[in-house]
Amino acid sequence: xxxxxxxxxxxxxxxxxxxxxxxxxxxxxxxxxxxxxxxxxxxxxxxxxxxxxxxxxxxxxxxxxxxxxxxxxxxxxxxxxxxxxxxxxxxxxxxxxxxxxxxxxxxxxxxxxxxxxxxxxxxxxxxxxxxxxxxxxxxxxxxxxxxxxxxxxxxxxxxxxxxxxxxxxxxxxxxxxxxxxxxxxxxxxxxxxxxxxxxxxxxxxxxxxxxxxxxxxxxxxxxxxxxxxxxxxxxxxxxxxxxxxxxxxxxxxxxxxxxxxxxxxxxxxxxxxxxxxxxxxxxxxxxxxxxxxxxxxxxxxxxxxxxxxxxxxxxxxxxxxxxxxxxxxxxxxxxxxxxxxxxxxxxxxxxxxxxxxxxxxxxxxxxxxxxxxxxxxxxxxxxxxxxxxxxxxxx
Length: 395
Hints:
The chain is α/β, with parallel strands linked by helices and 395 residues long. It has helices at 17-27, 59-62, 78-90, 105-108, 112-118, 140-147, 167-190, 200-206, 209-218, 252-259, 275-280, 282-293, 298-307, 318-323, 325-328, 353-357, 372-378, 383-391, and strands spanning 8-12, 31-36, 68-72, 95-98, 123-128, 194-199, 235-240, 243-248, 312-314, 332-335, 342-345. The protein has two domains: 4-206 and 328-391, Rossmann fold, CATH 3.40.50.10540; 235-316, formyl-coa transferase, domain 3. It is built from 18 helices and eleven strands.
């Protein structure tokens, strides 16, 4: 039976959703080979600053493509489509992933049935905006808008906002990761591959566990409420003498502990004993809490709430977050062998044995077609063959 380290992933990927998925798979030690058109490549290669002073290796691309290898292949050409099947078979590819529009599956020769004919037990995954029957293009903000995520984000009396991160992209990547792990397990038991179709819209909607039930079952209107919480109070951002904190009182015990002490004893009122009473008067309650927090430093308030086990935090900037000891020791990095530039990468959600054994280092994001010779030579192509494929625009 194969281990994760033995698995090979071939990915026709671009943008964010599939590249982040395969980045997660690379963190597990899988061999990830990204396929790109030799003429264009992934458009994200051109996004962000040109930090390496090199075309098609801009900063945005570097964020989620470490640990991978890159091969170019023109699937618009019949020779390219035949070569894809040969790569699948000869390299013993376990997983094929794409975020191409469904109308392009057969045209590019990447349809499940086509690739299954090349390798019977392949695990095939197609990630689309709105499912395999829709050819509608979709970017993360469009999905946030349609799924209702945007209507839940922002101040109550202001326009809807996109989230600070592309949750429709990243959330779909995480759902895809789980589905692939299940498929890998099932194949290890049954010996059979499978086709997985995952809709970014379905993924986005699935995060709305409370809003959908509350609206559909109980007729409650759920919409954006800024920094406050729909069901708990006091929960919000509060100003201090030297900044802001985020306070989250999640139950009546925590509230009692908060108002039993000197700082907030003026709020120890019968009408606030229960969460329902606090929610009913949430606007005035927040004003009252804020009037107290403004008289104390962030450090003093953090110490107080921590001492009574009420969840609280200062609001970190990204720079402050990176300097947190718990984050610092888990940051990944990658060294460019060409420029000797080191790039810091996000830590994984869970540290893997592969990353630990490699001292949290990943190989540098690949240049366009950087590994063509490595893989095409494994298929038996000579220098002359490779030159001819380049001249013909196949690779």
